[in-house]
Structures are given as C-alpha cells and as structure tokens.
Specification:
The protein is built from 4 helices and 4 strands. The chain is an alpha+beta fold. The chain has a 4-stranded mixed sheet. The termini are far apart. 22% of the residues are buried.
C-alpha cells in the first residue's frame, strides 16, 4: 500500500486553532481536546487512505473535481492529492457558508 505525506496548508492549521479556541470556552477543554485528536487522526489516516474521500458537492456542481473531503461531523477536511503528497487545504465546520469559503480558499 502506497504511503503519502500529509501536509497542512497554513489556512488549515489556522482552522484547527480556531476550532479549538471556539470549543474550549463554549463547551469544554476536554471536548476541544477530543475534537482536535479526532481531526488530527483523520488527517494522518490520509497518508494510507488518500483516495477515501469524495468530491465536495459544492465543487462537483461547478466541475471542480481535484479536491476531496472526509468528515468528522460536523467538520469537513478538504484536501488534494498531488503525486505522493496530500495537501489539506481546509478543516471547517460544515454548517458554514461553504460555497463562499471554498471559492475564497480554493478557486481564487
């Protein structure tokens, strides 16, 4: 089985920080730690299972099919596979205005 390098874009790193900073005071530090662990685990599993995701529907509708996503509900991890690398571009709460966010981040 092929192994890929998983790399987080600066925006994705900031997404994780923002998610943690939101959950900790609004819920609990324990829950923030749990979500952070789950998101990190999901991203690291992409090293072995890079093609397990699906094209985000917002991008599929406009014919952009080079990005994939996996979920840890309600969070969406949006990434791209290029050769032996998995580039994670976004880690976002799925109830956000996704078309605008994806346009800003991926379809510049």
């Amino acid at each position: 089985m092929k192994s890929y390098r998983v790399r987080l874009a600066e925006d994705a790193e900031q997404d994780v920080i923002d998610i943690y900073r939101y959950i900790a005071p609004h819920d609990s530090v324990e829950n923030a730690d749990y979500v952070l662990d789950q998101l990190e685990s999901l991203c690291s599993r992409l090293a072995k299972l890079s093609q397990r995701g699906h094209v985000p529907p917002e991008l599929d509708r406009i014919g952009v099919t080079n990005y994939l996503e996996v979920n840890f509900k309600p969070y969406r991890v949006i990434y791209e596979v290029i050769r032996r690398d998995v580039f994670v571009h976004c880690i976002v709460e799925g109830r956000r205005d996704m078309p605008s966010l994806l346009e800003r981040r991926l379809i510049r």
